[in-house]
Design a protein that fits this description.
about 80 residues, mainly alpha, 3 helices, about 75% helix, about 0% strand, elongated
Length: about 80
């Protein structure tokens, strides 16, 4: 099974790609009808929303597993 930290990293990277692609999406759909533009933007927004929800679920799951295992959360370095 893939470690949670690896899955979280992959989902974060995917989310960043989706968010960074919004300006390009707007350029790609500018020649489409208003209805198709709206549909493409709604699809992209739904995909981003689902990816954020998955990331939150993974982070929550990792924190619960860490607490169960008795691990202390890592503190950032000064």
């Amino acid at each position: 099974m893939i470690p949670n930290a690896y899955r979280i990293t992959k989902v974060e990277k995917t989310l960043r790609r989706f968010e960074d692609d919004i300006p390009m999406l707007n350029m790609r759909v500018k020649d489409l009808s208003a209805e198709r533009q709206r549909s493409a933007r709604q699809f992209a927004a739904a995909l981003i929303s689902q990816t954020r929800a998955e990331l939150q679920r993974l982070v929550k799951e990792q924190s619960e597993v860490g607490v169960e295992a008795g691990e202390l959360p890592c503190e950032p370095a000064d």
